[in-house]
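User:
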Amino acid sequence: MRMLHNPAISILLFGLLMGLSVACSRRPSDDAIAKDIQNKVATDPATKDSQVNVVAKDGKVTLTGAVSDPTAQQKVEQIAPEEPGVAGVDNQTTVGGEAAAAAATAPPPPEEKPQPIVVPAGTVLVVRTTQGLSSKTSQAGQPFSASLAQPVTVGGRTAIPEGSKVSGTVVTAKAKGKVKGEGQLDLKLTSISAHDQTFPIETVVLSSTVKGKGKRTAATTGGGAAGGALIGGIAGGGKGAAIGAGIGAAAGFLGGTFTGNKQVEVPAESALSFTLAQPLTLPPGK
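Assistant: Predicted structure:
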């Protein structure tokens, strides 16, 4: 079959294609459509108090947010389709009352869980005894009580307040004549009360001995003399002797806790320092 070529028809088709191309190139961009609708909503008297968000993609407009009343919602639905270049409108706005109800039924955000307080190993606990202890009269396994002479702080905040109750035990008590004339008294702490609870603790053993005529030593099992010390009890000095001055003494110094009879004596209200051997975990602070 012979093809007929009509110049007039070719020109007409070419014109139509050019027209479509020009029309497409003149269509507003999605950003321009969204911005224009947003401005009209913000300035219209019926919708200016509404909080409407406008998003346009490929000419399709989505409206979200809250409007003040049903009239404003209808006005928004009217403004959007009138915008040149809009191919469709999806109105997801809610009336103020509906938005408030939805917010009221939404679950509250999860609260941040308080973290426990950890008192690290190596922390020094300075305590004041409530009873006298002696290498002559005390027995291994004998419990003793004390109170915290200084608060324990973690991160600049008080973790255990001054005055908290502390319990300990006599590890070793040896009087003169039982071991080559030496007097020996070893102590450790076993528990402390804080936050209305009692917590087990482990401290380095505080070991003190007296040899010969007045020669004395102080050390701590497994940690050397720096791990803790008898620092406040002066034998025969009476209740409360040397408290305060002893607390400031360097750990590892045995301050007068012996007698001429080669016995280690710790009068009541003596200040003793112990070192935590293991960290202590406390509940979150109130």
